[in-house]
Amino acid sequence: MANIKSAIKRAKTNEERRKRNASQKSAMRTAVKKFLTAVENQDKEQAQVLFGQATRSLDKAVTKGLIHKNAAARKKSRLAKKLNALA
């Protein structure tokens, strides 16, 4: 454990940020999984709604710095392909 006051504070803030990032990343993954489940069940209306939520959560993850913007763009593109395949 750190002895210097600034190092103690840094360790504490790092832990808080790690927990916050893990929570937000988990929420993002959950939104994507819900969409994929709706696609598997061939539920077009539900998939349409969940696609909006999934893309929004991916965009929020980019602004928070959780994932790279190109990674989010790639994931959104793949989700859109699945949605369009239902129609």
UniProtKB/TrEMBL annotation:
Keywords associated with the record: Ribonucleoprotein, Ribosomal protein, RNA-binding, rRNA-binding
Gene Ontology CC terms, in alphabetical order: cytosol; small ribosomal subunit
GO molecular function, one term: structural constituent of ribosome
GO biological process: translation
Region described as Disordered: 1-28
Keyword hit for Transmembrane helix: no
InterPro entries in alphabetical order: Ribosomal_bS20 (IPR002583), Ribosomal_bS20_sf (IPR036510)
Similarity section: Belongs to the bacterial ribosomal protein bS20 family.
Function as written in the Swiss-Prot or TrEMBL entry: Binds directly to 16S ribosomal RNA.
HAMAP family from the UniProt entry: Ribosomal_bS20
Alphabetical list of PANTHER family matching this protein: 30S RIBOSOMAL PROTEIN S20 (PTHR33398), SMALL RIBOSOMAL SUBUNIT PROTEIN BS20C (PTHR33398:SF1)
Protein name according to UniProt: Small ribosomal subunit protein bS20
Gene, per the UniProt record: rpsT
